[in-house]
Design goal:
This is Coiled-coil domain containing 127. This protein is about 90% helix and about 0% strand. The chain is an all-alpha fold. The N and C termini lie far apart (about 185 Å).
Length: about 250
């Protein structure tokens, strides 16, 4: 009975295990199917994320390529402008350089011509300065002579206009002026004798009765004195010109 009981217990245990196996296998199959779905779901989500990420990368790549192309195009345009500007500057510098060379050549030619003319003119210049110095000495003597004649003519006209001074004194002054105008070489050169005679005959102007300024008497005499001053200046340069032309 014990053996039987033992055998029966073993068989029952084996039967229990046999009966339990289908449930265990069924549970494992269900778990594997659910896991497969989760895996597929995660795989699909991963694929979608990968695809989206790839699309985003491609979009960014194309955007970067487009931006780089625009940047390259802009840089190429600026480079072309800079090259054109540089070429223009180079042409301008070359043109300016040629112009400067031509101007320098012209200046050298003009300088050579001026130096040649200077060498030719130098003797004439020396002669001109020498003649000018000589004529300036003559001019100083002539001006001094005119100052002396002015003083005597002023006194002569004062006597002419005076009611008290003797006429003989006036005639004496007139005679002395005519004599000096005839013998003095400067006065003779200015032909003063004819002018003095004209003054003595026609200058009858006097200031008012109460006039005390001698220089307010006479009119023609002052015109002649101014005329003789101009003749002195004119003769100086005329003589210099004649002396240069004779060289």
């Amino acid at each position: 009975m014990r053996r039987l009981s033992g055998t029966s217990g073993s068989w029952n245990l084996s039967l229990s295990k046999a009966l339990a196996c289908p449930a265990h296998l069924t549970s494992g199959w269900i778990w594997s199917r659910e896991s497969q779905k989760e895996i597929e779901k995660e795989r699909e989500a991963c694929r979608q994320r990968t695809t989206a990420f790839q699309r985003d990368l491609e979009a960014k790549y194309h955007a970067m390529i487009s931006e780089n192309r625009r940047a390259v195009a802009q840089l190429s345009l600026e480079l072309e402008k800079e090259q054109n500007r540089t070429a223009s500057y180079r042409e301008a510098l070359i043109s300016q350089g040629r112009k400067l060379v031509e101007e320098k050549k012209l200046l050298e030619q003009e300088r050579a011509q001026v130096m040649q003319e200077k060498r030719q003119v130098q003797p004439l210049r020396n002669a001109y300065l020498s003649c000018l110095q000589k004529e300036e000495n003559w001019q100083r003597r002539a001006r001094l002579l005119l100052k002396e004649f002015e003083a005597v003519l002023t006194e002569r006209q004062n006597i002419y206009c005076s009611l008290f001074l003797p006429r003989s004194k006036r005639l004496e002054l007139e005679k002395s002026l005519l004599v000096r105008a005839s013998v003095d070489p400067v006065a003779a050169d200015l032909e003063m004798a004819a002018g003095l005679t004209d003054i003595f005959q026609h200058d009858t102007y006097c200031g008012d009765v109460w006039n005390t300024n001698k220089r307010q008497n006479g009119r023609l005499m002052w015109l002649y004195l101014k005329y003789w001053e101009l003749v002195v200046e004119l003769k100086k340069f005329k003589r210099v010109e004649e002396a240069i032309l004779e060289k």
